[in-house]
Amino acid sequence: MKSSAKPAKTSQRWLTSLLKKVRNGDLTVxxxxxxxxxxxxxxxxxxxxxxHRSLRTGFPEVIYGPGKTTxxxxxxxxxxxxxxxxxxxxxxxEKTFRAVRLKLKDALYxxxxxxxxxxxxxxxxxxxxxxxxxxxxADIPVAEEAALTAELMGNKVERIFDVGVAGIxxxxxxxxxxxxxxVVVAVAGMDGVLPAVVGGLVTCPVIAVPTSVGYGxxxxxxxxxxxxxxxxxxxxxxxxxxxxxxxxxLAGLIxxx
Length: 257
Fold this sequence. Notes:
about 260 residues, alpha/beta, Rossmann fold, 2 domains, 4-stranded mixed beta sheet, globular
């Protein structure tokens, strides 16, 4: 596919001036890095790729898959891969992955999270401290998206699935892992009580993720969302319905502190 990319937004004149200031001692290297942290982005017909997001936030821009054609996705990836060691594409199917794999041989697919991952950061030491807990098996896709995001940010993630309050003894069997965490991601649909229960058992932050799992009165996740927002346990924060990526990213930031 022929690229429609245009030159990056940063002008050559501005960049030359900045580098001259560093060379002449008018600007420190750290100050220059701060200046460069907001630029550039690459203008394409269908996207504006933020190549320097990792410089500003510590993690590259993530590609949200739905709504993009395979051609659009491939053109974005072809521009991002040379400039980033890590790539995450969320909410895509295996057919899309197969098309990506033809172009990018080291792309991997997580069928549970419905996500494509490219990770060229070899020998990275993972930081322990994150647990991802689900109420049921049906919550695993959202939980896996959270876990995968946190792992790509350089964290070791403990997965504890299907320990909801309908059989709360299952949760207690894993308390030693949960209590050793620095942050817990609790993912649940139905009544959405799990995060409040976990919040009453740990000293660390709990990130609650409501899922759209449930019958009619769950209203596609609205019922667990409201339950989690009204949690009586302190230390529980709530992300959007099915927001596995947001929860994993936030957990990664907390564990980095």
